[in-house]
Amino acid sequence: MKLTQHLSEATKTIISFEILPPSKGRSIESLYATLDPFMEFHPSFINVTYHRAEQIYKKRDDGTFERVEIRKRPGTVGICAALMNKYQIEAIPHLICGGFSKEETENALIDLHYLGIKNVLALRGDAAANEKSFSPHPNGHKYAEELVEQIITLNKGLYIEDDILDGVKTDFCIGVAGYPEKHFEAPNMDVDIINLKRKVDLGADYVTTQMFFDNKKYYDYVNKCRELGINVPILPGLKPISSKKQLTILPRVFNVDVPIELYTEIMTCKKDSDYEIVGTEWLLHQCRDLLKNNCPVLHFYTLSKPEIIYNVLKQLF
């Protein structure tokens, strides 16, 4: 079922999660161990991130170095199939521009279509670890809007090879990313929202936001989007803070602010359990406020401390 259909038919708040594929060589059982407890809350869908290959240098026996490409977290498509089979809920794979050609993207979409996957999240993706700024594949997409356009084109039954006549039409519901605190490369919020509107005008069906710790920034962002004519659902992304080091890591990696009140509370903590108490209470407050304001979806990033999210959901529902 498409995510937009889930939203239109929902009689209560939708719960969803985002997960990382396990590192290469690890078992999928680690994902099941994280997700199994959440099934009592009947999530509507699970997002699965996608990861590009990274270039590393391996030292040869003769002392020289060889550049090789590795994917540290493969398996997104297989994980989506496994989750749908095990839990009978929707799996939403991320698709990214970085590191992938248009043909590789088309082939991935064909695989997803064969599996009966109806939803995808179209992202540009981050720069490679060895790059200072994002560099697209020579035969790939530079911007997420180009990726959205390719998916829309495939939904119309049009393939890269122009000799494919009467091609099967896919039927993907397309999500894109939104940034309540602005994408770090955008010169200002207005331009960032204009960029988002282009993706929606092309055919994107919904927006999932980057994490935020101040609900006012989410509400202001939604209002600005509506003012510019973006009327698709905008799903709030939520994550707990569970350690002092996250006060610097999260702003640096995800370009988000930590409110002074949360910062102050975290800085007064003396032990690990104190951090988790503060993180739980802050996330619980965010969720209650979002529910009070009739937000139809709570979307959780489950990295690091899924038990905090579980405890919050237990108190909410």
Low-confidence spans? none
Question: Approximately how much helix is present in the residues?
Answer: 40-55%
Number of helices: 11
Main structural class: alpha/beta
Under CATH at level 1, the class stands as Alpha Beta
- Sum up the overall morphology in one term: globular
CATH topology: TIM Barrel
β-strand percent reads 15-25%
What does the average pLDDT come to?
93
Alpha-carbon Rg, integer = 20 Å
Distance between the termini: 24 Å
Question: What is the strand and helix layout of this fold?
Answer:
Blueprint: H1 3-9, E1 14-19, H2 29-35, E2 45-48, E3 54-59, E4 65-70, H3 76-87, E5 90-96, H4 102-114, E6 119-123, H5 144-155, E7 173-178, H6 189-202, E8 206-211, H7 215-227, E9 234-238, H8 246-254, H9 260-267, H10 272-292, E10 297-301, H11 306-316
Parallel strand pairs: 1-2, 1-10, 2-5, 5-6, 6-7, 7-8, 8-9, 9-10
Antiparallel strand pairs: 3-4
Helix pairs in contact: 5-6, 10-11
Structure description:
By secondary structure, the chain is an alpha/beta fold. It has a single domain, classed as Alpha-Beta Barrel (TIM Barrel), CATH 3.20.20. 40% of the residues lie in helices and 18% in strands. It is built from eleven helices and ten strands. The model has no long low-confidence stretch (mean pLDDT 93).
Question: Keyphrases for this structure?
Answer:
317 residues, alpha/beta, TIM Barrel, two-stranded antiparallel ribbon
